[in-house]
Structures
1.
Amino acid sequence: MTTEQQPDGSVRPVESTIRTDLRGATTYGSYLDLERLLGAQHPRSVPEHHDELLFIVQHQTSELWLKLVLHELRAAREYIAGDDLDPALKCLARVKNIQRTLTEQWSVLATLTPREYAQFRGSLGPASGFQSFQYRAVEFLLGNKNAAMLKVFDGEPEARAVLTELLESSTLYDEFLRLLARRGFDIPAEVLERDPRQPWRFEPALVPVFRSIYESTDTPWGIYEACESLVDVEDNFQMWRFRHVLTVRRTIGHKTGTGGSSGVGFLQRALDLTFFPELYAVRTEIGT
């Protein structure tokens, strides 16, 4: 009989139904491809610095979460395009929880002191989070499109293909506005027919539409909830950006970024970016 050692020194038997002979079966490790996943951390510092593993794991974990964010945002976009709002809201709810996890992760990296990071920072070469194609893909899906960014990925054809597809296709917000038009809301034709390759620009004509959605007691709850969910997603994105700024400032001060950016100043300017400006502008109008 298989047993387990307990903290008090006693031994308890493992439940007899638990399978322990796993030869030839799908195991936890094989299902998750743990051999490859746990072997994907390759510190570059010589001699290897203790804290470089933290830096690598932090960013690899973030990329895994970004992969799931993209998966959920794509699904939400398709559900909305198909007039199926409820599952889209479920996808956005999951995205919001992932975003909170991503934001909290900065507290782990913030345990890296300036002296510790300085001892292996040079091993990064020109590598930088600026080069994360998944981060850029999330921004494209949410409306912050920039065709010039494709050049960064000339050496990564698969990443460039993903970004090209997202550059040329509708955003989550585009599809939501189309849904509103189908539901009878007065969305201007020029908004519905806009070039999806262009970054979103503030559209004043949408503010009265959103004011009617927020102020009317006849607004279907799903529409109202979708508006608030989009605001939640942007708020969370901004919190992630802000924690990023604080962590970088705490770790390297105002040094230039490894990828050549101005560092903290570059990251701070990103805080001025917005995905759904009309959903914020309408708050000034409500109740006036």
2.
Amino acid sequence: MSDTDMKVIKTSDLDLAFREEIMKEHGAEKLSMCFNCTGCTAGCTMAEHEPNYNIRQLLRMANLGMREELLNHPYLWNCTTCYKCQERCPQGVHNVDILLKIRTMAVHSGIMLDKHRKVAQLMANTGHAVPINDDNKEKRKKLGMGELPETVHKYPDALEEVHKIVRITGFDKLTEAQS
């Protein structure tokens, strides 16, 4: 790595309150116990498919309080939540749980991938992440299943309950498109 590839981290840019907010989550209090042993990355399923993915780097950024860089990190959403890293950690750091907390913080800050926003909006509007269209109905029939699953597609009155939950929880506001 050349000197031009290295990013200088300024202590004035670090947000220790962000780190403390993460560590309030149950299980996340062990974040500071990570000593970069590489056990999490060595067993990471995602890293096998995406060489630049490194959960250890994300945890280190969280530990340092690198709020903006972490919430906007291109690999924040790559974890498949298989929990291998968490099970392998000799310090008992809840890697995946911490990452899920950081993702939640990103969403509450208006940061969400467009494809995730689209799925969330589908869920909020239709009660399904994958709507049942005519093609899906036909496939279900060929498999010997009912045309509609036992969901709001079959019981449309329940959709109003979904909409009520979406409004009460503020999920509709979280999934709005950001400008």
3.
Amino acid sequence: MAKKKLAAIVKIQIPAGKATPAPPVGTALGPHGVQIMDFVKQYNAATEAQAGTIIPVEISIFEDRTFTFILKTPPAPVLLRQKAGLDKASSTPGKTVAGTVTEADIEAVALIKMPDLNANDIEAAKQQIRGTARSMGLKVV
């Protein structure tokens, strides 16, 4: 079997289980000639257990207009906001503190994000998550 030739890679972030053919999905996939409803059905089926969370997806589109997709872990800021119980982070990080997260929360987020981070070990991953928390105006206690 011959290998399919890759035409494009599209990365978008969509709420789990709630993808629709409307933007951003339609505007990202439409120009490549992909069957948008096929992607929407497959994505919603794959993410229905995580409903409500933002899940990034990397879609590989081939020249014959077929596609495959890889689900990533939720963005670190989304996970940190959930742990801190916030709707949004600080508008002026460094000056105002929006909330606090514990060291256990940092470790939990780092373990979830580990497959998508470019960290060699859990300590390096925790440092990256601490930096994200700090840039959001969250205090680590």
